Amino acid sequence: MEFRIAHRFSCAPEAYWKMTHDPAYEASFRGEDVDTVVLEAREVGDHSIERRRVSPRKPLPPLMARAVGRERLSYVQEVDFDNAHFSSVWRVVSDILPDKVRCAGTSRVVAHAGGGCERIMEGRIEVDVFMVGGQIEKHILKELQGGYDRAAGIMATMLAAQGSGA
Questions:
Q1: Domain total for the chain?
Q2: Domain span including residue 43
């Protein structure tokens, strides 16, 4: 399943990028519904490389939990941030059935013709589990969309507080 998630913001791409790499922003949208542990963080030229374990606290729907043999998902998120081009390449490695679950993509922040900027995330989710793979893909996409919608709301609030608008 391919997807595209986009949000517009009333600031320049550089300002957006800088704010999203602020630890206060990161902490505010990770919130109480997920636990994260940084496994690796390093700088290589204009790139920031991160690996973190992400463990959502919300249980899977019962049918999915039975299919994968676990009540909750956890995964390692690997991201290569290209700080010079306000973009990243990412992938998610599931702790459950890593050979059957593939989730990867790109994100970028670009100037918008009408002013401000737009964050665009594109990727692909594939879950090769008999009978429930499609349902799991939809669940992952729903959670991903919800997380990015929450993050966009937090960014809009932060921009408004700085007087940049929303």
A1: 1
A2: 2-161
